[in-house]
Amino acid sequence: EEMDAKIAGLEAEAAALTGKDNKKLRQEKDKDKTNLKNDKQYIDACKVVKGLQPVHGFFVKTPAAPKAAAVAQAATPAPMETEVKAQADSKEKSKPAAKKESAGLSRSEKDELEKLKGLIIDKKKVLKEQGMSGGQMNKDEEIVGWVTRMNALKEKESPGAAAGTEDKKDSKKKKVLSSEQSAMLLDKQKALDEYLEKLRTEFKYSKKEIASDPDYLEMKAEIEKLSK
Q1: CB–CB of 186/177 below 8 Å?
Q2: Separation of first and last alpha carbons in the chain
Q3: What is the C-alpha to C-alpha distance for residues 187 and 177, in angstroms, rounded to an integer?
Q4: What pLDDT shows up at residue 97?
């Protein structure tokens, strides 16, 4: 009410200052009136009078203490609930970590595994050009070391995942040779089967690696040629 009275007084004074000579004084009165209306406390007072929420923090009613205490108590979980929740959270957090530690290879180990596969294939190509047989290549000291390391990485990548299941599937698909086929064809097929088994069990080659092995490809081509 006091502020409204001041604003009304300024308006009356400005209205009384008529004429061109009083223009500057009228502007000053209007400026004072505008400053009063823009006062934050006055703005909040007008809001409260109209039943609105004050925007500048004036005339804010503080909630009753008992009610605030009741809300705080309701928001605070019981000791037993807190303990149970903490235990559940601890278990959930430990699951991903345990899974991550127990299986899988790191990025560097995966790169090493791929590098070893390439080294073995390249070395066998070189030894083959030197006239070595598949059995002699597999006994090469360097190849044996690479294969041992490769098998260790594969075991870590997929523990217990041997080629047993794949062997059973592939054995059903193997062509049964008739008694009419020649002894040479039988010998070559037997040699291929033995070499294939060695690649799977001893060297733990995947299907993709077997398919790119130079000795395997040559032996298979000879059998296909004789079978036609």
Answers
A1: yes
A2: 113
A3: 11
A4: 47
